Amino acid sequence: MAHISIVNSTKKSWNETDAGLIAVGIYQDKKFTPMADAINQASNGAFTEAIELGDVKGKTGESHLFYVDGKRILLLGLGKKDKFDSNAVQLVAGTVSRTALHKKIDSVAMECFCEDCEHCQSCGEGLVLGSYQFIDYKTGKDDGFILKSATVLGCDSPNVAKGAAIGNSVCFARDLANHPGNTTTPSRLAEAAKEIADEGGMKLTVFDREEFTDMGMGALAGVALGTDEPPKFIILEYMNGGDAKPKIIVGKGLTFDAGGISIKPAGKMDEMKYDMCGSATVLGTMKAIAALKPKINVVCIVPSTENLLGAKAYKPGDILKAYNGKTIEVLNTDAEGRLILADALAYASKHYDPEYILDFATLTGAVLVTLGHIATGVMGTDDSLMNKIKLASKSSGEKIWEFPLWPEFCKQIKSDIADVKNMGTPGQAGSIAGGAFLKEFVGEDIPWVHFDIAGTAWGSKTTSVDPKGSATGWGVRLVLDMLNS
Predict the structure, then answer these.
(1) Which domains does the chain carry?
(2) How far is the C-alpha of 16 from the C-alpha of 153, rounded, in Å?
(3) Is 338 marked active-site?
(4) Is residue 264 among the annotated active site residues?
């Protein structure tokens, strides 16, 4: 684990900490935060002098290092005060951790950059997320520096620890996704689920290939035919909300996708280790729930397999029967994620009476064409649920964009020889076709929203909380915000 997992908070001030790096702030109007003002006075106006020389402007993203009374002081630009919200706090906190890693300083302390501690959760989240590195396979002597401790000064809010727990869960999701396909296998996802279940007092059920095949999950079984790696159907149940209906989160656990018989091009096929990022999102969410123990009922379902080529692999033209009895014409074996999700959605609809179902999947390359790495494409069947998601998106800073799921699109996945086909009209609305297909396997009158995270699960712009070349853990913070709303 190459990141801090705990963030402390204390009422102590800057001159009472032994941290190797202390971070304070200045707004664009040249107003100091309280501790920055105190340090400026203690240093005979070192900050003021830097402002007068034109070096310090207080703009977002600025950072300047000073040395006062034997301490390293990082003065951070906070931008316009009226724009300084929880998302800005998180990015600033991430900068503190990234600066410490760059300078190989193993302990940091940052001022609580908020009034009345309204953004303390973001302080904890940002410090943890900014400390994240994926260096498990690095063997050089200079590759292993890790931040060891972080503290928020001038604050004793429990929300700092809550934020750290959420950040730790995002990092957990990142780790699952960043490990290669020969490490993060379906069996490893099942092991991760067991770790979460043990920590959070959850019920874990894992069906293996023979079991879920006998149960009638023909779509998952079909995709799994081409691999010798044991596939798994994983269910985690957290029931701490009394008689309330469970909220169900489903994540695509395709641990490596070669495309099957409809093989992918060789270029960037290595990135197909990320095709299980939907499962990373939902397992990361459950990791946070295990730590925070909210009074809710949540069920997490992960269908997991590889999609490879082999003598037994399913083929274009095959007909598969899903768990709800619907038949599927396979036109492209590389449209496999929707197949394994079909059985998961059908299982959730049959065995639970859910408040709603959310599913997360790196489903289509088409969403990347539409939204790039900026936002996740979403579509669903319930306006009220969609509005809750939009509010959580704004709060968490994880952007979404709603696609229409009109009847015209839903007709495009109807098959001439089976109930549905796993492709829509060639070259048209590919992301919506994926959602239209999944809708066929959600029970009637169950509110449901599909998240296509193929553009946001990895490859996003590098920021202080999103390191270069890493999975992002996208969606964990959004879902947690929504589950607790």
Answers:
(1) 8-153 (3.40.220.10), 167-483 (3.40.630.10)
(2) 10
(3) yes
(4) yes
